[in-house]
Sequence to fold (323 residues):
Amino acid sequence: MPDIQKNIPLAPLTTFKIGGPARYFTEVRNETELLEALDFALENKLEFFVLGGGSNILFSDKGFDGLVVRLQGSASSDQKSAIGNQEGIKLARGIIECWAGENLSSVVNFAKEKQLAGMEWAIGIPGTIGGAVRGNAGAFGGEMANSVKSVRALEISGDRTNIIEYENGNCNFSYRNSLFKKNRNLIILSVKLTLEKGSAEDIENKMREIIKNRSEHQPKGFSSGSFFQNPIVDNPEVLEEFERETGKKALGGVIPAGWLIEEAGFKGKKIGGVMVSEKHANFFINNGTATAENVIILAGIIKQKMREHYSVLLKEEVVFVGF
Ligand SMILES: Cc1cc2nc3c(=O)[nH]c(=O)nc-3n(C[C@H](O)[C@H](O)[C@H](O)COP(=O)(O)OP(=O)(O)OC[C@H]3O[C@@H](n4cnc5c(N)ncnc54)[C@H](O)[C@@H]3O)c2cc1C
Fold:
């Protein structure tokens, strides 16, 4: 029987540190506990929400009126140093298999210990491997789609559930997107990864470079990472200006949302306790007092200006819950 708690604040469980309470809340460390928690929600006709590391989420100020099921890594905090012994991450015949609630960085470090290369780009991205697969997380030219062999997922339809194994080609991965993002009734249970044999030294060096790059370019503080997706722009004047100013090509018409927001003069713009970062304009930073309403207003102002001035429709990358 899962340990169901009531009225649990959600803000501390997200990197943005914003949001009201969950009416019901439980934490699970493996597939059996997750299935029990979902049974509880289905039996009691509660809406449920699967929370990973909370690094891509904005909970509303009133919270979530159902059951929040938080997926956690299999190791308890005092075992965390023994990453290689985590029950939830295994290596068999060259394939890494991990429980969806494992921390993404723990998976990357596990791969490094086994001298398997290909996931170095993901070091420093907060959240779980399940959340990363769902959003096809990516950085520095890498993305989850390149390493996923298959995904074991639970399909929920009405009060019936069914476990399905999806091979990479059936996961419909595209830029920050996947089958699991499009279909909320699919919950990722575990993930298999195929990586290349690599040298420990090369992997370590690459990871060090990426950590350095992140700390130089990414703002510190409470945020949910990049707030908007990078849009595809078809306005030739905007594309020309981008290429002239940055010396970069807008491949497929894709322009960084942060560049557009900066160009429009929003760096440092504040609404209540939230501000557009001075370091990276696609990061909204909560000074510790921001409400979800502050964030929605700031996002709305930016979206309207983008539409009027650049004919660009910005789409949120961050998931809004409980609105
Ligand atoms: C400082 C910072 C830097 C970041 N840098 C990057 C970056 O470089 N690249 C990048 O792609 N992202 C980046 N992000 C965004 C974020 O870390 C990723 O999107 C991450 O993969 C989200 O995982 P999570 O476990 O935190 O998901 P959550 O935020 O907990 O959840 C996000 C969504 O995924 C769903 N979800 C979670 N687990 C599962 C599951 N097992 N099955 C089905 N659905 C699930 C949730 O229901 C929710 O809809 C950054 C965020 C921060 C705060």
In short: Residues 15, 49-57, 71, 100, 125-128, 130-132, 134-135, 137-139, 180, 187-188, 218, 223-225, 319 surround flavin-adenine dinucleotide (CB under 6 Å). The first strand starts at residue 5 and ends at 9.
